[in-house]
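Ops channel
N.P.: pipeline sanity check, posting one input/output pair.
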């Protein structure tokens, strides 16, 4: 192993912590001499398993990543690669058959995995908020949307009761919902999909979180609404200095809106780089196939046909160290050895023995 290599499960995150924050993300290089700042979110070596009828599925296998204050990080990967499970684990809302078997996650100094549910729920929604795909399902169908925003304010802020309605209307105004005073009284079924997503974003942002996790926030919305929602998140992030994690299967969307992009495959983080660098020089064979398979600008992973094979069955007991190896045309004997995360410079990290 050369000096630029480190085991994925231990020093990968530390190396990645040297990637600059948003203010500096477009600098040409990452100066290795720059001391690593303390990231806002710092996840190391996260392992999550699910007990299933056919065995134990090792759904996350040593994922490490960090996010700096004010930065926008994109997480991309095929459906089933573990993107949502990663964030549900951080928020402590995994399903009952899941188990976090090892790893650590610090959010602004707070120990996300080692805290009680009461401590975690006070951070969740206040400093760390998440919006999901399918906002209509996430909203309470029998409660007016304004009241749902008030519920968040009551739970997480010291807003006096007499000021709640005005703050909820303000929150709707900030997400550019037309006629917010009237919409305050609406039920979710009276709103369009785009308006429901705006309400979800208003709820998520009501407490001015330091980090917004947006998991496929525009999937299912029409193209114009998608663009408006993404512009809205970007504007509020800029105004508040809020960090954003955009989870998406849409590489084009991630390229357009993110400072850095992390690529996941079958429960592994396989590559991470500044967005422009990743598009210009993909190093992991999986990323290269993703990028090569459709023209730039129309990079929906759903539309991909040329990444050969499928994600492996994660309940297999004979999964190879590189879970892409059975789909890869660059295999070397070394690929059967332990995974490595190489720092190739330019803030670019790749977990591969034979990068492109
Ligand atoms: N409750 C569960 N029980 C068993 N497997 C699960 C459960 N939830 C998720 N998984 C599995 O975890 C893997 C990752 O899922 P997910 O994080 O939702 O993928 P992504 O968000 O990248 O599309 C998938 O193989 C999925 O089938
Ligand atoms: S480690 Fe080997 S098998 Fe895995 S992606 Fe790299 S070249 Fe392919
Ligand atoms: Mg998902």
């Amino acid at each position: 192993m050369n000096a630029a290599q480190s085991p994925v499960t231990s020093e990968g995150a530390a190396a990645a912590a040297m990637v600059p924050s948003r203010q500096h993300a477009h600098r040409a290089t990452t100066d290795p001499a720059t001391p690593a700042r303390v990231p806002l979110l710092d996840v190391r070596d996260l392992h999550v398993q699910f007990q299933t009828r056919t065995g134990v599925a090792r759904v996350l296998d040593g994922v490490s990543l960090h996010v700096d204050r004010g930065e926008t990080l994109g997480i991309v990967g095929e459906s089933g690669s573990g993107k949502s499970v990663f964030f549900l684990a951080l928020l402590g809302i995994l399903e009952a058959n899941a188990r976090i078997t090892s790893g650590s996650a610090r959010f602004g100094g707070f120990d996300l995995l080692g805290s009680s549910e009461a401590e975690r729920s006070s951070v969740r929604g206040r400093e760390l908020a998440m919006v999901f795909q399918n906002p209509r399902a996430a909203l309470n169908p029998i409660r007016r949307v304004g009241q749902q925003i008030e519920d968040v304010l009551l739970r997480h802020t010291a807003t006096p009761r007499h000021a709640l309605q005005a703050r909820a209307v303000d929150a709707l105004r900030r997400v550019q919902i037309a006629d917010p005073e009237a919409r305050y009284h609406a039920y979710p079924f009276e709103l369009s999909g785009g308006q429901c997503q705006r309400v979800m974003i208003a709820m998520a942002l009501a407490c001015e979180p330091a980090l917004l996790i947006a998991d496929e926030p525009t999937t299912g919305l029409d193209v114009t609404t998608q663009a408006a929602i993404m512009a809205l998140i970007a504007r509020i992030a800029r105004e508040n200095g809020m960090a954003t994690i955009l989870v998406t299967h849409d590489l084009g969307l991630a390229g357009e809106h993110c400072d850095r992009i992390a690529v996941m495959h079958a429960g592994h983080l396989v590559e991470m780089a500044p967005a422009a660098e990743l598009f210009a020089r993909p190093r992991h064979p999986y990323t290269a196939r993703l990028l090569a398979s459709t023209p730039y600008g129309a990079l929906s992973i759903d539309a991909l046909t040329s990444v050969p094979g499928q994600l492996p069955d994660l309940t297999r007991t004979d999964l190879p160290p590189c879970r892409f190896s059975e789909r890869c045309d660059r295999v070397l004997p070394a690929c059967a050895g332990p995974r490595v995360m190489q720092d190739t410079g330019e803030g670019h990290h790749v977990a591969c023995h034979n990068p492109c």
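N.P.: looks fine end to end. The two ends are 18 Å apart (CA to CA).
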